[in-house]
Amino acid sequence: MEKKGGLMGWLDKRLAVDALWKVMMSEYYLPKNINFLWSFGVLTMLVFVILVISGIFVLMYYKPDSHMAFDSVNKTIMMDVAYGWVFRHVHAVGASIMFLVLFIHMGRGIYYGSYKAPREVVWVTGFILFVLMSATAFTGYLLPWGQMSYWAAQTITTLFSKIPFIGPDLVIWIRGNYIVEDATLTRFFALHVTLLPALILVFTAIHLYAVRVVGSNNEDGIPMTKEEKKEKGIPFWPVFMSKEYFVMSVFLLFFFFLVFFNYKFAMDPINFQPADYLQTPPHIYPEWYFLAFYEVLRGFFFSETLGLIGFVLSMFLPLFLPWLDTSPYPYISGKHRPLFKIMWWIFVVDFIALTILGKLPPTGLFAWLGLITSLVYFAFFIALPIISKIEKKKVASGGGQ
Amino acid sequence: MKELKILAVLIVIVGVTYWGIEPLAHSIMHKHIEEAIHKYHLPDYEFSDLGSTPPLDGDPAKGKEAFQMFCASCHGLKADGIPAPMDPKTAAMSFGVVPPDLSNITSYTDKKFLFHFIKDPAKASEFKKIAMPAMGLQDEQIADIIAYLDSKAKKVHGEELFKEACGRCHGAKYQKIYAETPPDALKKYLGKVPPDLSIIMKAKGEHYLVAFINKPQALLPGTSMPRVGLNKEATEDLMKYLDEISDPHKEQRQKVGIIVLAYMLVMIGLTYAWKKKIWKNIH
Fold first, then answer.
1. Hey, which residues 145-184 in chain B have their CB within 8 Å of chain A?
2. Using one digit for the tens of pLDDT, what is the confidence trace for A40-91?
C-alpha cells in the first residue's frame, strides 16, 4: 500500500480506512449484466436516511400523549413550525414509498433467484428488515392519533386475541389497557423511535456485509467467482454508483412530486379527524402496503381462524423461499426457468389484486374474489417445490438449461 | 432499451395499483354519497323540497313590531340595538343551544328557506329536536319579519361568517374560536359534541362539505346537524375560509414544490452526464 500523509493517512494507520473503502466500495465488483432494478437496494437506504432526518425534526415537536398528539401533529408541526409541514409530508410519503421500493427490491430478488444459494443469509436478513420496517410503519401510523390511526391499531391488535390460550391476556399486555389508549400510544412511540430503527440499522449492516461476502446476483443468475467479477465486472465505486446517483435523482423527482403535489395517498383524509373510541369509521383499512396481507386475512370470510392462519403464513412464508425452491439449475435466474417465470407473474398480478381488494368492502363479489386471490397467493409457494422437482428430473435426463 | 422496457412495466404495475387503491376504492366506498348528491341535485340552493313561498315583499316597520312580539324573547338583534334577552350560558341551559343574534341572518341564509324555517323549524331544518318551536305566524307576518331583518343585515365574510353561521355549535380551536354554546349543553341537545372544524376541509373535502351543509340528512341520515339554509354566496365564502384555515401553507407548498422539482431536474441532468462520462469506456 502506498504511503499517504495528511488526515487520511493518519486515519488509515488507526482505522484501516483504505482497506475498508476497497472492500466496501472501490474493489467490490458487480457483474455487468444487471439492470437498474439492482439500484433499489441503495434506494431503500436513501429513503431510510430521509425518514430518519425528517423523523428527528418531527420528533422535536411531537407530543406522545393521547390528549396532545393530534394537535401537536396537525397544529404545531403542520401550521406553527416553519416548514414543519415539509418534514411531516416527507416523513409520511417516505414511509409509504419505502414499501414501494422494498416491494420492487424483493420482487427483483425473487424473479432473478437472488434468494437461492449462496445468498440465503442475504434473503433472510432482508426479510427481517422487511418485518422490522412493517413494525416501524405500524407503530408510527398510530402516532398522529387520527381516526384511522386509532382504528387500524385497534383492529390489528385485536388479531392477537385469537391466539389460543394466551390471546386475550396478550392483547391487554400489548395495549397496556383494555382498549387502545394513552399507554398504547406511548409504547408504540417508544418502539417507533428507539428499538425498531436501531434494529433496522443492525440488520442493514449484516445485510450489507452478507452481500459483500457472496456478491451480487445478475440477470442471468450465472454464478461468478470474485475473480471473474473483477475481470468482467464493474467496481461498485465509482462505476455502479455513478449510475445509482442518476437513478436516485429520477427517484427523488418522483418522491418530491408526491411530497408537494400528491400526498393524499399517504395521508388519509379520515386521519385528519381526531381518534374517537366511540365512533367506528364506516371503512377501516390499513395503509396500502399492508392491504394484500390484510385481504388474505379477510379472504377466508367463512372462518376467522383460517383467515388468521392465512394472514400469518402470507407474511412469513417468503422467509422460507430459499428452502422451498431447491431447483438444481445452475443459472438461478427466473429468466431461464419458464415454469418459475409464469408462477412469478401470476404471483405479482395476484399481489396487486389482493392490494386493491384489500381496500374495498368485503361483500358480495369482492368477498369471493378475495378468497380466490388469497388461494392463488399460496399457489406460488406450493408450486416452488413442484417446479423444483420437475427441473430436477430435466437435469437428470440431461435436459434443462 | 431493455431498461426502458423494465421501467415501463414498473410504471404500469404501480399505476394500476394506485388506480385501484385510490380512485377505484374511493368511488366504491363513497358510492352512497355520490348517489345522494345525484338524487337530490345537491347543492340545491332553491331548497326545492320545501315548496314555494308567497312573495317576500313585506313591510320592515310592521316586521319590527312582529319581531319584538314573537322573536325578541329569545333572539337579539344587535344591529338595531335589541340585545339578547339572556346571557349565552343561561340561554344554553334553557334551550340546549344559544339562540342566534339575527342581525345578519338574511345575508347568509336563503330567504325562501328562512320563510319555511320560521313557519316550521323542525321540517325545514330536517331536525326534529330543534330548539325553536313553530310560532304559528301568518305568511304576511313572516314576510314582514324577513323584510325587517333584511333591512338591517350586512354582509359578513370569513371568520365573522364562520362564527355567525356555524359558531354556536362548532369551534375552530386552531383559530382560537370556541363554540358559543358550552360543550355539555351541546352534548345534551345533540347527543354528542359537534366536531371542531379547524381542519375539517382536509378530512372531508369541499365536494362533500358543500353537499352536507346543504342537506345533512341526505348524506348522513340521522345526523344531529340541522339544515341551516346557507345561500350559495355564503357557502362559497365559508368554503374558502375553511380551506385557508385547514391548509395555511398551500401557497408556500406550491412555490417550494416547484423549486425543489426544478432542482431535481438539474440534478438528473448532472448525474446523467457523470454516468455517461464514467460508463463511456465500459461495455
1. 174
2. 999 999 999 999 999 999 999 999 999 999 999 999 999 999 999 999 999 9
Q: Are residues A239 and A152 in the same domain?
A: yes
Best B1, B3, B16, B21 residue to mutate vs chain A (most A CBs within 10 Å):
B21
Verify whether the Cβ–Cβ distance B20 to A356 is below 8 Å: yes
Q: What is the ipTM of this complex?
A: 0.93
3-state SS, residue B218: helix
The CATH-assigned architecture of domain B51-246 is Orthogonal Bundle (1.10)
Domain C-terminal end among A220, A253, A282: A282
Q: Domain end: A214, A249, A282, which one?
A: A282
Q: Is A30 inside a domain boundary?
A: yes
CA distance B245 to B163: 14
Q: Is residue A7 part of a domain?
A: no
Whether omega for the bond prior to residue B182 falls within 30 degrees of 0, making it cis, is: no
**CATH code assigned at A245:** 1.20.810.10
Q: Residue B124 to residues A45, A334, B53, B132: CA-CA distances in angstroms?
A: 60, 68, 13, 11
Determine the structural domain holding residue A155 and report its residue range: 26-282
Domains in chain A, number: 2
Per-residue pLDDT of chain B in tens (283 residues, 90 and over written 9): 899 999 999 999 999 999 999 999 999 999 999 999 999 999 999 999 999 899 888 999 999 999 999 999 999 999 999 999 999 999 999 999 999 999 999 999 999 999 999 999 999 999 999 999 999 999 999 999 999 999 999 999 999 999 999 999 999 999 999 999 999 999 999 999 999 999 999 999 999 999 999 999 999 999 999 999 999 999 999 999 999 999 999 999 999 999 999 999 999 999 999 999 999 988 6
* Domain ranges for chain B: 51-246
Contact B124, B135 (CB under 8 A): no
Q: In terms of domains, do A269 and A345 share one?
A: no
What burial letters (b/e) apply to B74-105, b meaning 16+ CB within 10 Å? bbbbeeeebebebebeebbbebbbbbbbbbbb
| Beta-bridge partners for B172 | B177
Instruction: Judge if A106 and A73 occupy the same domain.
Output: yes
Nearest residue in A to B198, CA atom: A75
**Cβ-defined contact of A265 to B21 (cutoff 8 Å):** yes
Among all residues of chain A, which has the CA nearest to that of B263? Answer: A253
